[in-house]
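Researcher: Please generate the 3D structure of the following complex. Treat every line as part of one assembly.
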Amino acid sequence: MVDLKIDLNGLELKNPVMTASGTFGYGEEFMDFFDISRLGGVMVKGTTLEHREGNAYPRMAETPQGMLNAVGLQNKGVHYFAEHIYPRIKDYGTHMFVNVSGSKIEDYIKTAEVVNDLEHIPGIELNISCPNVKEGGMAFGTSCPSAVAVVEAVRKVYKKHLMVKLSPNVTNIAEIGAAVEGAGADSISLINTLLGMAIDAKTRKPILSTITGGLSGPAVKPIALRMVWQVAQAVKVPIVGMGGIMNTTDAIEFMLAGASAIQVGTANFIDPCVTDKIVVGLEQYCQENGFSKVSDLIGAMEV
Amino acid sequence: MKKYIDDFKVIKNERLNYEYVILTLQHPGQMPEMMPGQFVEVRVDNGPNTFLRRPISIHDVDMEANTMKLLVQEIGDGTRLMGQLKEGDNCNLVYPLGNSFSLPEKKRVLLVGGGCGIAPLLYMGRHLVANGIEPQFLLGARTQEGLIAMDAFSELGQLYTTTEDGSHGTKGFVIHHPVMRTQSPEIDQIYTCGPEAMMKVVAKYAKNHGIKCEVSLENHMACGFGACLCCVADTLDGHKCTCTDGPVFDSTYLKW
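Model: Done. Output below.
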């Protein structure tokens, strides 16, 4: 019997498998496929203070071993979430985290305050790394002072688990990781998407309405793995790793690099049951390799 | 409707011409009910440039044989791989997805399709006949070769065709066909699927004549079930997902 539990800085996850924001809706979209209460956690769609329509269509482009998206945080706003969506999802039997985003520090604060009052939401993921919005988003996560400013401000009002999601579009991610840890993050998740673009040679036009978008999928995995490993060397708080995880082996690699938990994103679009398969696969890997606890895999890469 | 993920078996791959195939897929057990206008997401593996599933309209359904047909136009790497599927191959589907065409309030119905957009109209035609309605079809293509499954359509109702080069039916686009030129059309409802430019013209015609019109969109999508929010259409209520709020929309609901 393998112990799959993970201690995420005082918050217990039943296993390390979570879903990534913007790839799993509010969980409801997946219920026909499997019992989502089997997951360690679900990260609901990026939520902002006000309703957002997001970017114009087209919002996606398939790329070799990946995809670009430019959704632009389409959501109905945190008040709508609290009134209409939260009551439906609060008893799903797994930790429902809310991904919080904004254009201004005050927006982050106000959104976090609303979520703070939702009893069954154990934590938020502060999105300082969205590449698809004109203002804010990634701009906060690409320099230490601005990352620190937004994390410190939210830390003052948000009393539960504060996860901070880092952008890979930086020169030194370990530095940003250490900075947000110092500003009060309880855990650090990475990576958000890499800024990319796609052009249609036939029409000589950009494929995305926004020209650039966020790259995800297996194409980014080696970069994500490297960044998780670098941040793991630089901080003490737990790390939630993501970036192109398609299967159990990928998930194990992220844990070996130093992640305490993992998030699965783009793979949900191709196999809506993939997260459930990874939960089963992790247990099997531990059994076959003599690990009594899955947490023994964290940072266990042998150099 | 409940969604499923299952391995179907390819029992037939019928090549119609250089760019179209019809795949007949069999469910391993009792196939769940599917509605006309709905689609499936086909897993396409082993391609160097294919990563996401491909959304494909349900072309026809045979509940007794537990089979469905997909009309596939080979326009990219993913659809070309689908065109190479052989009898006995597995084909993994997430299905049935999206909403469906509604039944008309009155009986005089015209289904207008262009290119691969004719795909969902066959199953809709069958559904209409089962509900005591005799459909009329107006199908357009660039050339005679692009007009496919004509026998199946003509079995269900009156069939009109147009081709851009005049090699079959009326020369021109569907909008040039006499059935859409009359000032007092004897039509109560139009269903259309095909290139967006064609659907816009058809929708405008319907609006001008006070005819109810449902259009089926083919926006690019990643997931097909409302998780990625990539396939949005611009509607009177803002961005709506083509995969869950559509693919069928009342034409007056779209900001066209």
